[in-house]
Amino acid sequence: MFIYIVFFGDIEERLILGVAGNVRRTFGLDVRVSSVPFPPKLGYNPSRDQYHAGTILRYLGSLDFPKLVKLVGVVSFDLYEEGLNFVFGEADLGGRNAVVSINRLRHPDEEVFFLRVFKEVNHEIGHCFGLGHCTDPSCVMSFSSSVRDVDRKGEGFCSSCMDFLKSSLNPYLRNPDQDPHKPHR
Ligand SMILES: [Zn+2]
Ligand SMILES: [Zn+2]
Asked: In whole angstroms, what is the distance from residue 71 CA to residue 89 CA?
């Protein structure tokens, strides 16, 4: 079972590898990076010069891969949703697909930049596993309306979000130490 990540736009190789490694560590599932064409100007709104997040989510929903658990699209361009100036990302709550924009997360210090991206990717995948927003300001599931909020929160899940996440992940994880068919001696 795999979490797949697809990258659209101008995204450096180092970040792609970093995100893949971070997702693998955070969720304990294997990660595959796939390259998929991005339909020209999909979701592009010329009057805003931004891309509509929901349209990209629907496109992700049309894709399929072997043993796919969750699919994350990481895009270099700026995203919006109706009624909002911009969004860092969007996900199907308890569903399969998520999209994250790195556009507003850039920082001259690569470490700061990458950490911001890891947080937003973890956050949107958390939504896919059914987590809502968390009131713990240090939890990665707390809501961010600015890049300052992104910097404030941690990259990990608070204990209650982690408990929830573990139960959502349970069907996908194999634990050889807990084989119910193994006889006790
Ligand atoms: Zn959220
Ligand atoms: Zn939390």
From this structure: 13
